[in-house]
Specification:
The protein is α+β, with helices and mostly antiparallel strands. The protein is 42% helix and 19% strand. The chain contains 5 helices and 5 strands; from the N terminus they run H-H-H-H-E-E-H-E-E-E. It has a 5-stranded antiparallel β-sheet with strand order 2-1-3-4-5, covered by helices on one side. A hairpin with a 2-residue loop joins strand 1 and strand 2.
Amino acid sequence: MSLFVVLHYWLAVPGLNHASPQLFYAGYKANLTLHIPSFLIDALKLDKANIDLLIQKDLKQQQNEFEEWVNTPIKWHLIIRWMSAVYGEKDIPGNIKTEDEASEYAAGVVKELKKIVWLVLSRRVNYHIDKDRNIKSRNIETIDCSWLPGARLK
């Protein structure tokens, strides 16, 4: 049984505070000891060891799914910040084969458009390039942190 099944069961019980799922999920993500009502533990015949086992199982499944997703090859592209909270995408031409060539192409787009750009080489690695054509940062995506606008949409 997944810990999410426990959570869904918890949500189905009438009279429980609906703010609880967020607290429950925050505790789950932070790997903290969870506060689960004793009647729920009794009803589902759970104990702390079983809950910890379910948490670890869910975390491992999430990590495996993330690794599979992040290691899937994608076409190199640029994400352009047109204005605050408005982003667009531009494919990198097929004749560009190396990271250096892609960086040069991205710098040219930045010079032409005078916009902030992210050079996306994979779902895991991207470069943030500012309006002065400097690489501000090389970002590595993790399961808990995305440095890229729209990175989870591809």
